[in-house]
Each structure stands twice: as C-alpha cells, then as structure tokens.
Amino acid sequence: MKFSFRTISNGLFLIFLGVVFLLFNYGALDWNFFGSFIDFWPVVLIVIGLGLILNRRFPISFAFLVLGLVMLGMSIFLPPASRPYFWVPPFYNSHNAVTRNFDYSLPQGVNSGGVSIVGGGADISLGATSQGFAQGSITANNGEPSIRYDSGSARLSLALPKNVKFSPNSPDVLDLKLTDKLPLDLDINAGAVSAKMDFSKIKLNNLKLQLGAADVNMIFGQTGQKTKGTIKSGASSITLVVPKDVGLRINFSGALANIDFQGRSDLNKNGNTYTSANFDSAASSVDMDMSVAVSSVRVQAQ
Hints:
Helices cover about 20% and strands about 40% of the residues. It is α/β, with parallel strands linked by helices. Strand 5 and strand 6 form a beta hairpin.
C-alpha cells in the first residue's frame, strides 16, 4: 500500500496536535503556547516558498506541522526571557501597566496565617520582613490586580489579571515580603513564572506550587519550622537551596525530568524518595512532594 505525502503529513499533524494537548493536560505546556503563533506564523510562508522553489506543492498540514514544531521547540528548550519575539501587534500593548502597593499590619491574637497567589505569567520576588504581616507591590499589564486581606484570620489573597499579551518581555511583577513572626501557608497557582523566593527566615508551614513553564529558585533555612511542600509543574527549571543542618525529604516523580543533588551527599534513596539522615531530628525540615514534566530540578546545600 502506497501512502501519499499529503496523507502522511495529515497524519503527522494530527499526531502532533494530540501530543501537544497531552502536554497541556499534564502541565508540561502553558496555554500561552498558542500566543507564539503571533511571532512564528511567517514559518508557514517559508515552507510554501520552499515548495515553490523545489517545484512541489507541500500540503498546508505540512506547513503547520513545521510551524508547530518550531513553536514547541521554543516553548520547551528556551526559557521565556530568552525567546525571540519578532512582532507584537499594537493592540497587545494597548493596556497601561497598573501598580498597586500594599502594607498590612500583623494582627493580634492570631497563631498562623496564609497567602494565596493566582495569576498567569509573572516575575515573583519573595522574602521576609519583621515589620507587619505583608508588604509589597504588584505591577499588572492587563488590568487591575486583586488584593484582599482578612486581618481576622491573617489571610492575604493576591490575584493577577490573566495576561493575554503573550509576550514575556513585559510580565506582571510581584514583589512581596512576608512576616517572619507567624507560621504561614503559601499557595501559588500560576502559569509561566520566573520566581526567586527566599524562605530562609519565613516560618513556612505548608507550601503548594502549581505552575506551568517556570524558572524557580527557593532558599530554605533554620526557622524552627517543619515545612510540608507540594510542587507540580511542567517545562521548568527548579532550584532548591537547603542547608545541611535542615532536614530534607523529597519524593520525586516526573516524565522527561531529572533531579541533581549538589552538596547533599547525606541523602539516602529509597525508590523515588530521598531522605537526609537528620530529617526526623533536625529542628527545621523540608518535606517535599514533586511531580514535574520536561523539567530539571537541582538541590543545593548552599
């Protein structure tokens, strides 16, 4: 049985679409992936032009297959800040950036607090403060951010508007300082994120990260707190800095993902779980469940 080039091209294009949507379902790709079509659509013209030079007509499915492979390659192998963006239409920059500052005092009679962050693409900088409960600023490029604080329960909720501009050259920016006085729960649900989070002085009780494509650096320290964490991400680079005097346990799973330990030779491996000898006895510890796809994870002692 002979197959025409058109039939093979149509089949490969459908397979490609199936793989892409599977990657979406497992969090390995962010939906902003389709935004790169704005930049790379000329690839279709290039393929058609090559067909004319070679005196053969490539099916349109082949042109879109090549385009999709280019977009997929850029999404997986290049971090957002490094991707070239050849053309951004004026209407994508029609919104002025909105900056909102906030400063909330530490409530009396509260034993713990919580922070929730929801958004699309963003640059996040997080550290500790000894003044008040939370202070910082949000710069949003596509609308008004939502900032809600319940002083009775010491709960802060930050929501960044969905970024429809697709260009990571102008991400939303969150600069946040959290109290070092109270044990905290931190929940972040975001898309393409570049984050530097210093927890070395924050009494972090529970940490939950659900991210798309991300570049994340986290620093832990001696806080006297037993931290329980969950990380789910796709197409990410994640670095955890955990000093040797902090107990550590990591349960790691992922597709096309790897984990590398630097300066933590004290870890014992049992299946997919890595545990330090001082995990139970240390005054401070980090117990992390990680489920990632197409990602690189690095654990450092300093």
